[in-house]
């Protein structure tokens, strides 16, 4: 009896030691009941917006994706090629590991088991998402009449950037070598953007700046990169692993204060973020 009791106590001690070293895990992968250190809690940069195609299907860590976003702590993040489950995990890690709290809205255009998992009869949702430190209102999601080789669309929300309300659009245009399809999509998107005096248009447009299909957007807004225009003699900073500029932050009724492109091991697209002055206006 003494030997049995001693063996049980030893087993309990070993389990307790393992929990101290490893920590009990929640289904999401975060430590259950873990609190963020006080010095890790911080506020997002109030006038910073980011766009990022997070790549799907890619075998990338959501912990790593959250860390990349937290490094720059934007007020608003527009993500493309997102699965709802991945966004939820990223959002959880931003809060639990970095002290950053975000609201979320989705612009789902596909139910895709191959990309997002889930059961074949209940596949995961795939499309765009916006994270915002401030609450969002009036969300809409629009599927383009012709998505090309894959359904595509855009979403829009109203939120606060730099202390002022602004309409934020997030889109992913048709894949490369589908110029005519992208041209139609850009016209649909531009018609909605034109209704707003203050707008930020984020996304992966799958087109270089001088591509004719982007003309409707250039007529309404300017890219955050001052060296990058359709007929610019300057050099547009690339945003992809194949060194093309496909990712944009178009500003309408706001002026850029500065932008950065940052490479990342978690996607074939770079992170692009910009700080804006909501009190100034820059025309297209």
Description:
The chain is α+β, with helices and mostly antiparallel strands and 284 residues long. The chain is built from 6 helices and 14 strands. It has a 6-stranded mixed β-sheet.
Topology:
Blueprint: H1 2-22, E1 45-53, H2 62-72, E2 74-83, H3 84-98, E3 103-111, H4 113-116, E4 118-119, E5 122-123, E6 125-132, E7 137-143, E8 153-161, E9 164-172, H5 179-193, E10 199-204, H6 215-218, E11 222-223, E12 247-252, E13 255-262, E14 271-277
Helix pairs in contact: 2-3
Report on the biggest sheet. Answer: 6 strands, mixed
Low-pLDDT windows of residues: 1-36
Number of strands: 14
How would you spell out the order of helices and strands?
Answer: HEHEHEHEEEEEEHEHEEEE
Q: Helix content range of the residues, please?
A: 10-25%
Q: What is the terminal separation in angstroms?
A: 84 Å
Strand content: 25-35%
Radius of gyration: 22 Å
The chain-level mean pLDDT equals 86
Strand order of the largest sheet: 3-6-2-1-14-13
Structural class: alpha+beta
Shape annotation: globular
How many helix segments? 6
Short description:
Helix content is about 25%, strand content about 35%. With about 280 residues, it is α+β, with helices and mostly antiparallel strands.
């Amino acid at each position: 009896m003494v030997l049995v009791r001693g063996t049980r106590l030893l087993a309990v001690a070993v389990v307790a030691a393992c929990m101290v070293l490893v920590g009990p895990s929640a289904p999401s992968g975060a430590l259950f009941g873990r609190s963020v250190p006080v010095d890790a809690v911080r506020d997002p940069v109030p006038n910073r917006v980011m766009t990022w195609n997070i790549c799907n299907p890619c075998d990338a860590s959501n912990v790593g994706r959250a860390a990349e976003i937290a490094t720059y702590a934007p007020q608003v993040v527009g993500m493309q090629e997102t699965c709802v489950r991945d966004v939820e995990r990223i959002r959880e890690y931003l809060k639990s590991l970095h002290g950053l709290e975000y609201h979320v809205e989705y612009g789902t255009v596909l139910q895709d088991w191959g990309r997002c998992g889930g059961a074949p009869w209940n596949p995961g949702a795939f499309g765009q998402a916006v994270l915002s430190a401030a609450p969002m209102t009036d969300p809409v999601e629009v599927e383009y009449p012709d998505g090309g080789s894959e359904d595509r669309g855009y979403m829009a929300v109203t939120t606060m950037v730099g202390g002022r309300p602004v309409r934020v659009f997030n889109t992913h245009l048709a894949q490369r070598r589908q110029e005519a399809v992208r041209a139609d999509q850009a016209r649909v998107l531009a018609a909605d953007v034109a209704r707003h005096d203050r707008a930020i248009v984020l996304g992966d447009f799958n087109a270089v700046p001088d591509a004719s299909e982007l003309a409707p957007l250039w007529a309404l807004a300017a890219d955050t990169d001052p060296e990058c225009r359709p007929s610019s003699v300057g050099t547009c900073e690339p945003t992809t692993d194949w060194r093309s500029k496909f990712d944009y932050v178009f500003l309408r009724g706001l002026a850029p204060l500065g932008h950065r492109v940052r490479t990342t091991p978690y996607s074939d697209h770079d992170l692009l973020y910009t700080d804006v002055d909501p009190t100034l206006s820059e025309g297209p």
